[in-house]
Design brief:
It is built from ten helices and six strands; from the N terminus they run H-E-H-H-E-H-E-H-H-E-H-H-E-E-H-H. It has 228 residues and is α+β, with helices and mostly antiparallel strands. The chain folds into two domains: 109 residues, Orthogonal Bundle (Arc Repressor Mutant, subunit A); 114 residues, MAGE homology domain, winged helix WH2 motif (Arc Repressor Mutant, subunit A). The chain is globular, with a radius of gyration of 20 Å. This is MAGE domain-containing protein.
């Protein structure tokens, strides 16, 4: 592979990941889609083993130029989904994906990177993630909204009233599912009448961070104990 081809493919991978991340509000990008973007260029991009090499170069450039980690994740699979029956289904279940995450310290990231208008939505996502986590990683939809009502996040008959800062909470949850922070699946794959449940998806690690979820849970528990 020539230096020119290497540079061209690396630039294309970076362009594609940046565009896809922006378009999908930070949702992880599937490795297969990155491969398709490389194959579309042709040449060395179609050679076996070229993909991993170019992705590694893109990861280094993202860090050096933009201060972003291009972290590799495994696409999360719901425990409520029907087990894979074929090789293709099994491969899809273990698919790799990538997400961009700033390496700036939290204070600098909030000042220079994070969108101030998204602060309330981020806080909401952490609260929901904590509720999922303390429910053994899976929470029924009706239970989640009952707990959100107890916290004062949602109100009104059938959740018809919008939150002052969050707006339509159900629409916000749908957006967080699209961003792969959460998964929303039937509570039982063989009984759709049982409704839906939420679980953490791979985006929770990249966008929120498991350490932030655990920190929130621990701080909430300490504050509860302190008030007893």
């Amino acid at each position: 592979m020539s230096a020119e081809e290497r540079e061209r493919l690396t630039s294309e991978v970076m362009r594609y990941v940046l565009f896809a991340s922006h378009q999908n509000r930070g949702a992880p990008v599937l490795r297969s889609k990155i491969g398709e973007a490389m194959s579309a260029i042709g040449g060395a991009g179609t050679k076996k083993g070229a993909g991993s090499y170019i992705v590694a170069l893109a990861q280094k450039k993202f860090l050096d130029i933009f201060g972003f980690e291009m972290i590799e994740l495994s696409r999360a699979q719901s425990r409520n989904k029907r087990p894979a029956k074929t090789v293709n289904e099994s491969q899809a279940a273990s698919a790799k994906c990538y997400a961009l995450r700033s390496v700036l310290p939290a204070q600098m990231r909030r000042k220079f990177v994070d969108d101030p208008s998204a602060t309330a939505a981020r806080g909401f996502a952490i609260v929901v993630a904590a509720l999922v986590q303390i429910s053994n990683g899976c929470i029924r939809e009706e239970t989640l909204f009952e707990q959100l009502a107890q916290l004062g996040v949602v109100s009104g008959e059938h959740l018809s009233e919008n939150h002052a800062e969050l707006g339509d909470v159900r629409a916000l949850m749908a957006l967080l599912v699209k961003r792969r922070i959460f998964m929303r699946e039937h509570s039982s794959y063989d009984d759709p009448t049982m409704g839906y449940s939420y679980e953490l998806a791979e985006g929770a690690e990249a966008i929120i961070g498991y350490e932030n979820i655990d920190k929130f849970i621990n701080e909430s528990m300490r504050s509860q104990i302190a008030t007893v």
